[in-house]
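User: Sorry, folds how?
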Amino acid sequence: NHNLVALLSAGVGIRACGRLLKISPSTVMRRIRQLAAEVKPPPLLMGKTYEVDELVLFIKKKADNSGREFQLQGNQTVARFSVGPRTNKTLRQVLTSLELAAAKKIYTDGLKHYRYLLNRKVHCSKRYANNHVERMHLNYRIHLKRFQRRGLGFSRSKAMLSATLKLYLWG
């Protein structure tokens, strides 16, 4: 299992993990789900500054336009994420953890959903305000095959995308 997490962290795909570990791809997927169920997100720090941004990716087909990830970043690490369509409900899943952590300041891009969901006192939407999280998204697109634009790698289910992200970020 440690080898599997190391391979996933190196950006190796599921079939390639199976070939390298000499197990079937379905066994790799089952182990990924089992390992991801054991991974817990890091604790949020009280009263800190956070950056929130979304990363557009596709699940199943590009025509569905169903895969978007809302990501919360603080102190150069990903503290929380949620996979789903670009709606207030999906974004709220990430933002409730910020409310509980009493964030000092929350930097976002110009997406209009943030204006309705965040308190004006803590919300800041300046130009270049979330450069750190944007750079992290670029690193993910370079490093993980399933995040590349116009590539052949993609996720077929939200469950596998979430499990792979948990292992990559916190595993």
